[in-house]
Amino acid sequence: MAAPMLRCLLFFLGMFFFGTNASDEFSEELFIKPLQKGYVYSHFQFTTKWNASIHHQETFQHYHLFPKALGEVLLHYDVQELHLSQTQGLWHHRQWGYPIHDAPPGAELWVWFKPSVKDIDKTWTDLANAVSGLFCSSLNFLDSKNTVTPRWSFRPQGLAHQGYAYRSYFMRYGTLPREIVCTENLTPWRKLLPCDSNAGLSTLFNAFHFHDANYHSLGLHVRPICADSACMEEAIELSQSLSVVTDVVSTSNTGAPHWSLKSLFGNHLVSACPIASKSVIMVQTANSQEPLPYRLTPEPTSVEEVIRGDQKHSFAVYQVPSFTHSGRVLNVAGTYNDVSGLQEDGTPPPIHAHRYITGYGLSDGGISCLIHSSLPVNQSIIYLDILPWFTRVYFSSLEVSNNGHKVPFKVHYVPAKDRSRPHHLELSFMLWPHSTTRVSFTFTRAFLKWTEYPPDANHGFYISSAVITALLPSSFGYTSPPQESSQLSSIFSENSTSYLIRIHTESLLVSLPTPDFSMPYNVICLACTVLAIAFGSMHNLTTRRFIKEEAKAKRGLLTKVKSFFTRQKDATLSEQADAAESADQNDIKEKSKEKLEASNDKPKEGDQS
Ligand SMILES: *[C@@H]1O[C@H](CO)[C@@H](O)[C@H](O)[C@H]1NC(C)=O
Ligand SMILES: *[C@@H]1O[C@H](CO)[C@@H](O)[C@H](O)[C@H]1NC(C)=O
Ligand SMILES: *[C@@H]1O[C@H](CO)[C@@H](O)[C@H](O)[C@H]1NC(C)=O
Ligand SMILES: *[C@@H]1O[C@H](CO)[C@@H](O)[C@H](O)[C@H]1NC(C)=O
């Protein structure tokens, strides 16, 4: 009886250990880069690489480390690539350089569907709803009014056929600049990690510290990639990232920019995720040859130096398992010897931009975007701007100028349709060496129907960030890993000579002509008040009982008057009051007048008596 059961158990154990031959691996990395003026940029990178093809239906039947909830969404909506970011705060490129994944304030979703999808717009809406449920965000508000198909700005980031990648027919891009990112978005995102937050770098997640930071961004990217460098087989890569910029100077008690894992996240690191094949902390120590202004403790496992194009980057690398074995804790810290140079402005990255609203009043307005380039060569860029339909853009006013000279540009413009699609403006032009290029156009504001205003109508309406895409020849301020892999340690073996950047500018807030929504409220208040008063007295009159009053009632009134005056009266006047009570009822008034006078010149009378 026991033997078959044991065999059965062994069989299942065997299935578990040898039969499933799990073909995915997981790595966790934390990248720390101290920025100028006491800010510290921390980027958590969790990468799951699964040796399977995203195009095969059977792939999504057995899961190991890849999250099933996400796999089912990818399968059901025929997704080839999915890129989601949820961000709070604005990344300042000028001061902070380029982040690993650039993201606009709010939520951004862009997806490449498989060519088998029949109705892309419907699938996009359904997918947005599914993703919104998965991450507790309001992505379900991504409808045709804020979705476009960018023509040049976005290309598949992973493996794709040339014919497929060339046309962006299967791609959809949508943003929600108003979306607020909070703990309820962090929790479902964290649940997709194989170790959740029970072990490894994710134990450093501290919602309090993240939401207190100047910038934080959650990212999720799925794409097909090459399984190895020969690229004979496909793999699926899931990259989850969390970026935080913390102002250590203002959060520390000492006012010094010293940082440590404990000061950044409120905790030491006690373990590595046991199923991670790699668990690493990297600190970017220098962009170029400058000496390090701070001292790192403990000593890193190794120091890696990489030449990326014209720049040398060096990183201190900590292999987490070798620090946290046998119950020890790891608290990587940077201590500054000299804090004098910290308040200086550093060199800004080669390309950065600033976008703002022009004009005044509520009828006309405009948008200008200044793009600064400090490169020594001509640099071509692609500019994408998506404007809501209620800003009616004058296409004729579109101008790209550099120091007063008009710059020739190539344009793809899809005008808006009221209540159904946004303006989609894509420009491609050259940035001249060491110059500032201005893109500008004007618009007029449309009237909305009164039901189309949000509850806080006077807050204004958001316009999503513009996206600037360029392939830079220099890696100054650049931190992203190469295209082949999202793992940050793949930077060490990088070999390319051009660096893709995608900058998101500020999102804008415009106010539209807004009706006086307080007016109906005032009318309601006034009407209610009038009605209440009228109804009250009518009700009183109709429900009142009229009773003929007896003399007794008058007597009562008299007593009242008497008691009123007796309170003011002196003890010396008590006889007069007795007299008044006994007096004839007809001369009450006269009597009370007398009493009043009497009480007024009371001291005199008191003297006389
Ligand atoms: C995935 O495939 C590549 C190439 O075939 C191989 O080198 C790698 O070890 C595989 N990974 C896993 C987890 O099986
Ligand atoms: C940049 O392009 C302009 C024309 O668009 C040309 O006149 C200029 O010489 C170019 N500069 C460099 C450095 O290539
Ligand atoms: C770097 O590039 C050269 C040629 O451009 C190539 O031969 C070499 O294999 C590359 N190395 C790596 C690590 O990719
Ligand atoms: C009606 O009004 C009189 C005085 O104005 C008040 O004394 C009386 O209580 C009221 N009756 C009702 C039913 O409210």
Topology:
Elements: H1 2-19, E1 24-34, E2 39-50, H2 68-76, E3 79-88, H3 93-96, E4 106-113, H4 120-135, E5 147-148, H5 162-166, E6 171-176, H6 183-191, H7 207-211, E7 215-226, E8 234-247, H8 248-251, E9 259-260, H9 261-265, E10 276-286, E11 294-297, E12 302-308, E13 311-319, H10 320-324, E14 333-336, E15 351-358, E16 364-373, E17 379-387, E18 391-402, E19 405-406, E20 409-414, E21 423-431, E22 435-445, E23 461-463, E24 467-472, E25 499-504, E26 508-510, H11 518-543, H12 551-568, H13 574-582, H14 588-600, H15 602-608
Parallel strand pairs: 1-10
Antiparallel strand pairs: 1-2, 2-8, 3-4, 3-7, 4-6, 5-6, 7-8, 9-14, 10-13, 11-14, 12-13, 15-16, 16-22, 17-21, 17-24, 18-19, 18-22, 20-21, 23-26, 24-25
The structure holds 2-acetamido-2-deoxy-beta-D-glucopyranose (NAG) (4 copies).
